[in-house]
Specification:
four-stranded antiparallel beta sheet, signal, 6-blade_b-propeller_TolB-like, Glc/Sorbosone_DH
């Protein structure tokens, strides 16, 4: 049942938005403030649709409603009031742990072209990869689907794929790829893992990519030295590309992505190995970009939305919270946490065309939720 936002509910939710001191935001120690259950009961958050089997991605449609993708490889058209219809023609995916249908993206020219991109995993546990597929959505079916990019080389295991998509203003497609639990991959320009890629709409490497003419390098690489980027979005005003990624034990990062930059993994990191041993040489090194925000301990950020005011929104898997990051005027961010522990693992976060915030929960009976714009102002 839909809940309607009331002045009391707005007050309850706004009461949660107390920024952490700027000095503490980059290394938030200890638990964040919890959202009182009363805020949800009062209607500050609306459960719109579900349950879905591990919903992982949201993409808005220009005519209204959205697509919701699930890890096992199902795609749903969902109306703003929660009615849903399954989309046919979705490729078969390898699923398990972090593998599955990773992301879905609707292009800016969708009203004319009907173009949808899917990032998904194919193969078997000993040898698998991330595929970028392009199709047209006609009614409730994907047609003319084609695989336009395959990450190389094939790799084993079912973890750390990355797989987030973003579209540049010029129509280029950006794809994040994780390091597949092999740290050396991220610094190796001869493979795609541990990188953010920039592709032409047909999946080819643009001639002006930073490594397009470097012998032995993969021409699709835009930036490297990443661990597991689970958020990827363009700032709607500045046009800057931003990402966040998982650290090991601690050291989750927010980065402004620039062409050709090395983001450090595994040479530098604010985290440590899971057995407590150090990683790399420290937190900084010449020629490697410093993160603009760090979470220690880790929250495992997932999903990223940026609004026109410059506010960043991210979900958190381990942290089970909705994170708000506001520029602090000094190149960093002031952090606020909302709804901590209320909904479980938050897998994707998107800002809707009307300004409302939408998120999905990573659960075998996950749901799609809406936070009204009025509750965030």
């Amino acid at each position: 049942m839909a809940h309607f936002i009331t002045p009391a509910a707005i007050g309850l939710l706004l009461g949660l938005l107390v920024p952490l001191p700027a000095a503490d935001a980059a290394a938030a120690e200890g638990p964040a403030r919890e959202a009182p259950a009363a805020a949800i009961a009062a209607g500050a958050v609306e459960r719109v649709a579900g349950p879905f089997d591990f919903p992982w991605s949201i993409a808005f449609l220009p005519e209204g409603g959205m697509l919701v993708g699930t890890r096992p490889g199902r795609l749903w058209r969902v109306s703003a009031d929660g009615e849903r219809r399954e989309i046919a023609g979705v490729p078969e995916v390898l699923t398990g742990n972090h593998a599955g249908l990773l992301d879905v993206m609707v292009t800016r020219d969708f009203a004319r072209s009907g173009t949808v991109y899917l990032a998904h995993v194919r193969g078997e546990e000993p040898a698998n990869t991330v595929i970028l597929s392009r199709a047209r959505l006609q009614g409730d079916e994907l047609i003319d689907r084609e695989e336009i990019f395959v990450a190389e080389p094939m790799a084993d295991g079912l973890d750390e794929f990355g797989g987030r998509l973003a579209e540049g203003a010029d129509g280029h497609v950006f794809l994040s790829l994780g390091f597949k639990f092999d740290p050396e991959r991220s610094q190796d320009l001869g493979q795609h893992w541990g990188k953010i890629l920039r592709l032409d709409p047909d999946g080819e490497a643009p001639f002006d990519n930073p490594f397009a003419h470097v012998p032995g390098a993969r021409r699709e690489i835009w930036s490297f030295g990443h661990r597991n980027p689970q958020g990827l979005a363009f700032h709607p005003v500045t046009g800057e590309l931003w990402s966040h990624e998982h650290g090991p034990q601690g050291g989750d990062e927010v980065n402004r992505i620039e062409p050709g930059r090395n983001y450090g993994w595994p040479v530098v990191t604010h985290g440590i190995n899971y057995d407590g041993t150090p990683v790399g040489i420290g937190v900084q090194a010449p020629g490697m970009a410093d993160p603009l925000h760090v979470w220690t301990p880790s929250i495992a950020p997932s999903g990223l939305a940026i609004d026109a005011e410059g506010t960043f929104w991210a979900g958190a898997l381990a942290g089970m919270t909705l994170v708000r990051l506001e520029p602090d005027g000094e190149g960093g961010f002031a952090e606020t946490r909302m709804l901590e522990g209320e909904f479980g693992r938050i897998r994707d976060v998107r800002r809707g065309p009307d300004g409302d915030l939408w998120f999905v929960t990573d659960d075998p009976e996950g749901h799609l939720y809406r936070v009204p714009k009025a509750a965030m102002e």
